[in-house]
Design brief:
single chain; alpha/beta; 41% helix; 16% strand; binds 4-methyl-5-hydroxyethylthiazole phosphate; binds magnesium ion; Thiamine-phosphate pyrophosphorylase; EC 2.5.1.3; transferase
Length: 223
């Protein structure tokens, strides 16, 4: 890629953003991802976290497998937290939280790759933008069962507040988002939804991803 990703392209990649690791999957992670991609998932984040998370070679092998699937599907493959891993894999980007290495130093290491930063306040959002974020992950919007150390639930109001404060960087809402909550999240100002359980725990993974994406697209206000 030459140059940073354009905001309008970033917004499209955020529409149905699947965050996934082996810990979240009932079936084989590569099956889950294949199905999710068939349902029109627009970006994937590899987040291998939790008590039974893979490490070492098995983790690397899984990451490569999922990266290949994304490559064939033509969508970005983002690595959570681990800048070293992202560089080793030549991933399309990195997503970091407020407790990770600072965004400006990650930006310096990853060049023009996609940089996503979790932001919980307007101040964190503004700092992330100054430090070179391409998108913001905002949440948890609703209670979540998928992250032990999640911040306090924010509700969709945080999205309204950020947009009202003039933050126009692409934003994805995250945390407890189900198909019934998509419209509210997008109307409040998100460009899309990032989900773990709504897709990985679904009986019909492909249909779940498809349904979420359709709902996002229908909820986006077209000028
Ligand atoms: N960051 C904030 S909430 C969350 C992360 C990684 C978990 C989202 O998972 P779910 O199952 O979609 O609530
Ligand atoms: Mg993190």
């Amino acid at each position: 890629m030459s140059g940073r990703i354009l905001p309008e392209i970033m917004r499209r990649h955020l529409q149905m953003y699947l965050v996934v690791g082996s810990v979240n999957c009932l079936a084989e992670p590569s099956r889950v991802v294949q199905e999710a991609l068939a349902g029109g998932t627009t970006m994937i984040q590899f987040r291998e976290k939790g008590r039974s998370a893979l490490t070492g070679v098995p983790m690397l092998e899984l990451a490569r497998q999922l990266q290949d699937l994304c490559h064939y599907a033509g969508i970005p493959f983002i690595v959570n937290d681990d800048v070293e891993l992202a560089l080793e894999l030549n991933a399309d980007g990195v997503h970091i939280g407020q407790d990770d290495e600072s965004a400006d130093s990650v930006r310096a290491r990853i060049g023009n790759r996609i940089l996503g930063v979790s932001a919980h306040t307007i101040e964190e959002a503004r700092r992330a933008i100054l430090h070179g974020a391409d998108y913001l992950g905002v949440g948890p919007i609703y209670p979540t069962i998928s992250k032990d150390d999640a911040h306090a639930v924010q509700g969709p109001a945080i999205l309204y507040e950020m947009r009202k404060a003039g933050i126009d960087l692409p934003i994805v809402g995250i945390g407890g988002i189900t198909i019934d909550r998509v419209e509210e999240v997008v109307v409040a100002g998100a460009d899309g939804v990032a989900v773990i359980s709504a897709v990985t725990q679904a009986e019909q993974i492909r249909a779940a991803a498809e349904g979420l994406k359709k709902k996002v697209v229908l909820s986006i206000k077209h000028p």
